[in-house]
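fold-stage: in
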Amino acid sequence: MRGWSIPFGRWMGVEVRLHIFFPLLVLVLFAMSGPQGWPRGLALFILLAAAVAVRETARLLVAAALGLRLRAILLLPIGGLFAYANPESQEKANHGTGQFILALAGPLANWCAGLTAAAAILGVSSIQLFSLPLIDPKSLLRSLVWMQLLLGLLHLLPAYPLDCGRLVRNAFARKHGVAPAGRAAAGIGQALALIAMLGGMLLHDSWLVLAGFFVMIGAQIEDQGVFFQSVVDTVCMREVMLTDFATLSPSDTLADALYRCVHTLQEDFPVVRGPQLVGIVSRQRIVDALRNDGNGYVQSVMSRTFQVARPEDTLGATIRRLTAGHGLALIPITESGRVVGIVSVQNLMSSMALLSEQRRIERQEQGN
């Protein structure tokens, strides 16, 4: 989710990220509005952003009502992609009545907003709501209505990551498994997106081309996500853990610990007493303690709250521990009570792209 996206703060406690093409879309709308119409192009972009905001606010509220824990949301001009904080929330969102409620929340919110805007506009204006083109920088009030209505209608298409496409994927997953369903949903989404883009070109409809383009991006993100999940659920910790690492002792002074920090790239250190793991301390905590309180001992600043993993644990389970909201930046890998490796956010993120690429190459070679 972090690839090709920029942070946009937090929304209802959930990290919000914008796909890089979302803000760049304003340049396309400037071009569609002509050299003298850039203010209307900007207004059109704001109307689209408002439609997405209406949709995703409704989905966030429904997710909260269903008890789903969200970690982040990636916003595209066609809507948002949720990243769940735990497997339980992911499972609940994809099964039972919750999946249907969540799928209906976005379209219903857009349709309610569009119909409300239409009623308000017709009450004070004689604007022709059904004049073509329905979305046009020269008629912002008509565009306000149809931006909401058409965004809701778009999500009735069975193309992932659209809402109806999610339901199709979930139904397929119950019979054939999550990974095949994800690949099939992504393939259907990409095919329909391509049809929409070609149709838009033939009909000279820029909005149809844009909708197909962003559905294509969403489908590719899903395909990458499914492949990433297949990697993390099959890779064991012994395959990715760092075996060349430094440890500290609780009786080490902070000055000695800082000296060790200078000569290693580690950000976080296991604290061991003999073979036994007793804590974890970060480089920044050592520096802050020295600045504020002067020299002392590592045991006074180390964290005694930590989790451990075993070499045979899957990477997926360990990632969920790192991202479960406990503020963990490092998980020691232990065997028979002895620390044999470490996994940190720092080294894990740098190695995931290489792992995915390695597995992708292997899959292509098996296919050939």
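fold-stage: in (second)
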Amino acid sequence: MSRIYFIITCLSLVAVMSCKEQLEEVESTTVQKKYTLVQTQKVELSNEAIPLFSIGTVASDKDIKLAFKIGGVIKDMYADEGKYVKKGDLLAVLRTTEIDAQVFKAKRALTKAERDLERIQAMYKDSVATLENVEDLTTLVEVSRSDVDITEFNQKYAKIIAPESGRLIKRLAEPGELTSPGNPIFILSSNKGKTIVKATFSDKDISRIQYGNKAEIEFDAFPDDIITGTISQLSESADPMTGTFLVDIAINRGNKRMRNGYVGRVSVFPKQHQSYYKIPIDAIVEGESDYLKIFTPHESDTIAHLLSVRPFKITSDYVAVFREGLPDLDRVITKGAPYLKDLDKIKIKAN
């Protein structure tokens, strides 16, 4: 009986020792897992200009809208869209039956007023007419002469003559149509104008663009060439429909014929006055309002520190953040970052 008791006692001691060893093993494993295994990536400090992208269309900075001074029926048009015209070329005329009659009427009224004035002046010398009669008819002659000038001026502008040499980029009417005064009939791209590209940018981007900034444009019409240019004009107000700002880019077209309406991919390179960090896109763990959150290794690379940064440009590879106001960044945590909390213990795994 004592022997059985001794065996049971021994087995109990073995079981206790075994449990102790398992407990110590669990505790040891728990201690080992108090850190998170992570990988880091280097942060690049840069001063390079980050391009701003948009879509632009070719235009001229001197497009002239040609119209008739008076309304009427278009009689003939002598130029087609796309045609090159020279200064002084006749482009279109109105039917002038009505305006010719107005000119004739004004001239006849002037002739009668001048004849009446001569008769009254002769009578005034004979003391038959008064000075008031002479002055009234003198005024009538002056008014009639002004009426002739007006009608002859309108008659002159019952036709459209090219004011500059250039290419007609739009023809907006046809013979037989009734047009109103000032309604555009042609749009002329003058030779004196420069070829430009018009592009639009958001308010965030327009604040970084300045006159003289360099630009590059790629056109499908010239797939092997990159057209360079500079910013020549900045809109001071946004388009009320789109909320974007218009930017004119003067381009160096060389010997290429740039047709108005060509569409190109625009890259503008604003001057970069502040240095900035290029934070790898894999380091971003979450966003909040205008800020993004990243983790950086601290205290001999054993502690993860949560940091909020405000980007001014996000690309497919990195987030650009101005250096001002931030601590010196050498590396950021990429792999393992989504599982971290601020001040978590970490262990950096070799890349």
